[in-house]
Amino acid sequence: MTEPLNLDTTYEDLMAQKLAGVDPSLDTREGTSLIYNATAANSIEIIQMLFTLKNQIDLVFADTAPREYLIRRATERGMKPYEATNARLKGVFNIDVPIGSRFSLDELNYVVIEKVEFGKFVVECETSGSIGNLFLGPIIPIEYIDGLTSAELTDVLIPGEDEEDTEAFRTRYFNSFDSTAFGGNRKDYKDKVSALQGVGGVRVYRAWNGGGTVKLVIINSQYDKPSQALVDSVQEAVDPLSEQEEGVGIAPIDHIVTVFPVGETSIDVTLNITYQDGWTWPDIESNVFQTIDNYFNELAKEWAESDDDYTGVVVRISQIETRLLGVDGVLDIANTMLNGAQSNIALDQESIPKRGVVSG
């Protein structure tokens, strides 16, 4: 009996299987025999059918499905990719500008949506996504505003986020099977708070200030310390201060939730660098700063994505030295010190590293 075909069967395997069942006395030479030619044509059709079938199977399983079909599969669990959001920034003006007035900076436009105090407003980027976080500085009114002589974006209050990446969404889908979010358990808080605009991660601590209290420590979606505006926004969404314990927000009734920003621990870095010929510290300073910032940002992302809320990240000398060896102008590096000591620094569970003074 012929063995059943599997979806990975090749054309060559299929031809060998078919020709093996032909009477040896018959001509099966390639290109000259009718049997070979007929078998080849039939095998090509079968291989095409197997390919189509395999492709269809890949579409419906979450580990291989492309974005469209992954979304359809995840919908069965009530999940969908996080949508892109619009950055909100702090706008500083010499006068009170009208709500709804629009400004431009390079290729982006912004609209004034809320007054904070005299001359200070919340401004929203009209283009969704992380691009709205990138630019600060003077902005130009799209329409004339009488008395306006200065207008500037000074800070990102709530970062804009890009639409959730396919692989990140796939990971979140599979992670949803590991633990179940329910009625204010840890998973529920993490899922719902992380889904709020501008939040990159959250750590949850029970009974931090007595029974029924919950402490949330958040980091923004750029893996930096969040602004007070973002902290206030999350507090309002989770458990408004004016109605705490009432179950008005995300938090269940009887939960008293307080939201805090992740702390920052300043790390001074003292470097002992051997330079390549012709290079000095001023030549490499900015690249060194960027390299250290990138490493600290990786640690902040690790903090945000960790499942262990009670373990802090570790700033390692070896990691800093390894990365700095890739900077142009650096020949060698040794005896690096962090905060004055030649040892790694383990941060507390609610802090991320921030570059302090760097000397080379």
UniProtKB/TrEMBL annotation:
Origin organism lineage: Bacteria, Bacillati, Bacillota, Bacilli, Bacillales
Family listed: Belongs to the Mu gp47/PBSX XkdT family.
Coiled-coil region: none
Membrane-crossing segments per the record: none
Residue ranges constituting the Baseplate J-like C-terminal domain according to the UniProt record: 267-359
Residues of the Baseplate J-like central domain: 181-261
Protein name: Phage tail protein
Pfam families: Baseplate_J_C, Baseplate_J_M
Record InterPro entries: Baseplate_J-like_C, Baseplate_J_M, Phage_Baseplate_Assmbl_Protein
